[in-house]
């Protein structure tokens, strides 16, 4: 087995170990949430017998350790459990029991979130790389200073503030885009893009700043290297020096920051989805926390953690592939 294969397998093992530890934290934290689903469903006038019966039907009367290992075993078999709220609805209405599956609820919502993340990444990554390269090329110029002020302002502003500012200017004062992203199954691609564009622009303002500043810093850090000086002495244009010589050697930190921001697009969309009423996994997560739907909350947290760990793992592997010195640390 080669050195690269050993490094990749080692990273995979650490990723799985981290996900296992995170699953324990998720289960413990979710089950420590105040309130009780049975009490919330039945209301304040519920009798202790009725609450006990519902808790027994849902398995909430079992010890936490037993419930955790049962949940972990189900997850390993691809079963994220049954939604408490939907199971209660099915029992009262007699509707299709498959709708009570957590996987059936999360699937379409996760697809919507991935679509939003994809649109944001398609805008943010090229824009941030271009701005970072130009800021490095014209460092200490008016363009560089304006770009730094803009990125620092966007980093310092919370997502909901940026969202409301965009709604004010692009949906209220100038009705160019809809303020609510009420997308649904069967919607055409063009209409879906139009409904998704405003939350995507909000997320773009947040993540572009990090990627642009890291690109600028990584390139400037390499401009004093001997091989860059040699390329300049050969008469190459500054743009060609940066694109052909500095940028390829600065890929490792840039890949890391891009992966971290892509992970944020999946795990940090909760606030943006709530503001725009976007039917993604973040909105489902908030709604499930309100009604104490423990299986859905646990599944959402596990998906967030899994996406974050997977993208960090991917960034680590791509950094190793792009930089031979990381494959041979000695």
Tell me what you see in this structure.
- The protein folds into 2 domains: 98 residues, no CATH class; 196 residues, MetI-like (MetI-like fold), CATH 1.10.3720.
- Helix 6 runs antiparallel to helix 12, helix 8 runs parallel beside helix 13 and helix 14 packs antiparallel against helix 15.
- The protein has 16 helices and no strands.
- The protein is 77% helix and 0% strand.
- The relative contact order is 0.14.
- The two termini are 19 Å apart.
- It is mainly alpha-helical and 330 residues long.
SSE order: HHHHHHHHHHHHHHHH
Radius of gyration from CA coordinates = 24 Å
Q: Could you please say which CATH topology of the largest domain applies here?
A: MetI-like fold
Q: What is the mean pLDDT?
A: 81
CATH architecture of the largest domain: Orthogonal Bundle
Number of helices: 16
Given the C-alpha coordinates, what overall shape results?
globular
Q: Which runs of at least 5 residues are low in confidence (pLDDT < 50)?
A: none
Question: In CATH's first tier, which class of the largest domain applies?
Answer: Mainly Alpha
**Roughly how many Å apart are the termini?**
19 Å
Largest sheet: none
Helix content: over 70%
Number of domains: 2
Strand content: under 5%
Secondary structure tally: strands: 0
Structural class, by secondary structure, is mainly alpha
Query: CATH superfamily of the largest domain, called what?
Result: MetI-like
